[in-house]
Amino acid sequence: MIKSELIQIIAEENPHLYQSDVERIVGTIFEEITSALVRGERVELRGFGAFSVKHRDARVGRNPRTGESVEVEEKRVPFFKTGKLLRERLNDA
């Protein structure tokens, strides 16, 4: 599912909302999740899962094509851990 499909489904299930309002709501939700992760905060959606940021230290990697050593800078990467209800629902289906 892509963002536009999500917006379409929400708009169909809520005919009292305009499509533009649904787009703004979904955009705001994604923007707030992103902003919280940038600040280093954890975002938990009960029953769905939790988004957090993991820190990866700098290291020496290898170019797979040439085998040459390459310095890889430290970075922060998003991490998602599924919630118990989502895991149960996936495994029961």
Helix fraction bin = 40-55%
The CATH topology of the largest domain is given as: HU Protein, Chain A
**Uncertain regions spanning at least 5 consecutive residues:** none
Radius of gyration from the alpha-carbon trace, in angstroms: 19 Å
Mean of pLDDT: 95
Strand count: 5
CATH superfamily of the largest domain: IHF-like DNA-binding proteins
- The helix/strand class is alpha+beta
CATH class of the largest domain: Few Secondary Structures
* Domains (count): 2
Question: Judging by the overall fold, what is the CATH architecture of the largest domain?
Answer: Irregular
Overall outline? elongated
Largest sheet: 3 strands, antiparallel
Overview of the molecule:
The chain has helices at residues 3-13, 19-38, 84-92; strands spanning 43-45, 49-56, 59-62, 69-72, 75-82. With 93 residues, it is an alpha+beta fold. The protein folds into 2 domains: 1-41; 42-93, IHF-like DNA-binding proteins (HU Protein, Chain A). The strands form 2 sheets. The protein has a 3-stranded antiparallel sheet with strand order 1-2-5. A two-stranded antiparallel sheet has the order 3-4. Helix 1 (3-13) packs across helix 2 (19-38). 0% of the residues are buried.
Key phrases:
HU Protein, Chain A, 93 residues, alpha+beta, elongated
In terms of topology, how is this protein built?
Blueprint: H1 3-13, H2 19-38, E1 43-45, E2 49-56, E3 59-62, E4 69-72, E5 75-82, H3 84-92
Antiparallel strand pairs: 1-2, 2-5, 3-4
